[in-house]
Write a structure and sequence with these properties.
Strand order of the largest sheet: 6-5-4-9-8-7
CATH class of the largest domain: Mainly Alpha
Helix content: 40-55%
Largest sheet: 6 strands, antiparallel
Shape: globular
CATH superfamily of the largest domain: Porin chaperone SurA, peptide-binding domain
CATH topology of the largest domain: Triger factor/SurA peptide-binding fold
Structural class: alpha+beta
Strand content: 15-25%
Distance between the termini: 49 Å
Radius of gyration: 25 Å
C-alpha cells in the first residue's frame, strides 16, 4: 500500500533503513581525501528522494554523486581550516528535527514505534550527516564572504544570456488546509465489518479465494491489481519497504501461514489479512480493505462546519493556525498550524501537490481562504477541506 498503509518518514528513513538492513553488496565509488563515498550512500539518497515524492533526474546517480563529492570536499577543507562546530549546536539541530518528527506523528512513542528506534538512536543516526552539512555550510560561507557583487553586475550578467535561455525557477507555494472527515453512520460502519466477516467465511469455506475477493472488493487501489498482496517486515515495520501502520503489522504477524485475521480497524478503515508465507521478520500477506461510505448528508454537515470556520477567518476573528489546531482532523495539524510540509519545510512546488490541491489553489490570491470542497485522500477516504494560500513565489528571470 505505497499510498495507503505507510506513514511517511523523511530524513530518518534512509538512515534507519541502512542501519537496520545489511548491505548485500556495497563498494567504494568515490574518495575525497580521507573520506569515502559508498555506492549505498548514493542509492539511499535516490531512494529517500523517491520516498519524499521528489523528482529524480534520469542521470540521478551522477547528479547525486556530484552533490556528495562537493559536500565531502567542503567538509574536508573545513576540517583543514579548523572550523569548529560545537556539539551543542548539533544537539540543538537534532532536537529541532526530532520535535518536527514528533509533530508529524503525534507523539514520541508513535515516532519510536514507526521508526523502530529510540529517539536517542534516531539522533545518533543523524548526527554525522548533520555535522557534515553544517561544516559544509560554514566552509561555503567562508569561501563567498569576500565576494562582492553589485546589482549592476548581476544585471549585466543576465543581459548577456539570450531571453529564450533564461533559467526557469519553479513557483513555490505555502499552503495550509483544515480537513474534516465526515463520519460514517454506525450502520455503514457495521456493514463494512459484516462484509469482511462474510469474505473471511467464504475463503475459509473454500467458496472463494482471498486473491479473487481482494481484486473485486478491496478499497486499496495500491493492491487491487495484485489480489491484495504485499511484502512486509516486522522489525522495520514496513510494507513494500515503506513505513507502515503499526496496527496492520501487529495483526499480520499474529497469523500462521494460511490463517486469516479477524476483522480489525486501522486509521484507514477495516481489514482482514491472510498470511501467505513468512521467514523470520519477513512475510508476504494479502489484505482486503473496506472503507465505510459516507452519505451526502454527512458531507453537507462537514461543509457547513468548515464554511462557518472560513467566515471567521475571512472576518479576521480567527487566525489560520489557531483554526487548524482547533478544528482540523488531520492528526498533524496542531503541530504544523495546518501548513502542508515538504522536504524544504512549508515551501512546495506544484508538482509536489496532489492534482486536486494544485487545481484548488491555482487561481487563489495570496492570503485567500478557499470555500469548502469535498475531496478523496490518497487512502481513499472522503473528506472536506478549506485551503489557505499563505505565499507564492518563483518567476522566470527577466531583465526587461
Amino acid at each position: 500500500m505505497k499510498k495507503l498503509l505507510f506513514v511517511f518518514l523523511t530524513l530518518i528513513t534512509a538512515s534507519v533503513a541502512s542501519a537496520q538492513r545489511p548491505v548485500v553488496a556495497d563498494k567504494i565509488v568515490g574518495i575525497v581525501g580521507d573520506k569515502i563515498i559508498l555506492q549505498s550512500d548514493v542509492y539511499n539518497d535516490i531512494n529517500d528522494r523517491k520516498r519524499r515524492n521528489e523528482p529524480v533526474p534520469p542521470n540521478a546517480e551522477c547528479y547525486i554523486m556530484e552533490q556528495i563529492l562537493a559536500l565531502k570536499a567542503l567538509v574536508l577543507q573545513a576540517e583543514k581550516d579548523s572550523i569548529i562546530i560545537e556539539d551543542s549546536e548539533i544537539d540543538a539541530l537534532l532536537d529541532n528535527q526530532v520535535r518536527g518528527f514528533i509533530g508529524q506523528y503525534g507523539s514520541k512513542e508513535a515516532l519510536e514505534e514507526i521508526a523502530g528506534r529510540t529517539v536517542y538512536q534516531i539522533k545518533e543516526d543523524l548526527r554525522q550527516n548533520f555535522k557534515e552539512r553544517k561544516l559544509a555550510e560554514r566552509m561555503r560561507d567562508k569561501i563567498v564572504e569576500g565576494v562582492k557583487i553589485t546589482p549592476q553586475e548581476v544585471k549585466a550578467y543576465w543581459d548577456k544570456i539570450p531571453k529564450d535561455s533564461l533559467p526557469f525557477y519553479e513557483s513555490e507555494v505555502e499552503i495550509g488546509e483544515i480537513v474534516v472527515y465526515p463520519k460514517a453512520s454506525r450502520d455503514l460502519e457495521k456493514l463494512a465489518q459484516d462484509e469482511l466477516a462474510d469474505f473471511k467465511q467464504q475463503i475459509e469455506s473454500g467458496k472463494a479465494t482471498f486473491e479473487a475477493l481482494a481484486g473485486l472488493y478491496t478499497d486499496d487501489p495500491g493492491s487491487k491489481n495484485t489480489g491484495g498482496r504485499y511484502t512486509t517486515n516486522r522489525a522495520e515495520k514496513t510494507i513494500e519497504g515503506q513505513p507502515a501502520d503499526p496496527t496492520f503489522i501487529n495483526n499480520a504477524f499474529r497469523l500462521k501461514e494460511g490463517q486469516i485475521s479477524p476483522v480489525f480497524k486501522s486509521q484507514f478503515g477495516y481489514h482482514i489479512i491472510q498470511m501467505i508465507n513468512r521467514a523470520g521478520d519477513d512475510a508476504v500477506v494479502r489484505h482486503i480493505l473496506r472503507v465505510p461510505k459516507v452519505t451526502q448528508a454527512e458531507v453537507a454537515l462537514s461543509m457547513d462546519k468548515l464554511d462557518s470556520v472560513r467566515s471567521k477567518l475571512v472576518a479576521g476573528t480567527l487566525v489560520f493556525g489557531e483554526a487548524a489546531a482547533r478544528y482540523s482532523e488531520d492528526v498533524n495539524a496542531k503541530f504544523t498550524a495546518g501548513m502542508l510540509q515538504g522536504p524544504n519545510g512549508t515551501y512546495l512546488t506544484y508538482d509536489q501537490l496532489n492534482k486536486d490541491m494544485a487545481l484548488l489553489v491555482k487561481d487563489m490570491k495570496v492570503g485567500e481562504v478557499s470555500k469548502p470542497v469535498a475531496f478523496t485522500d490518497e487512502r481513499g477516504k472522503q473528506g472536506v477541506r478549506i485551503a489557505y494560500l499563505k505565499s507564492r513565489s518563483g518567476l522566470k528571470l527577466s531583465t526587461g
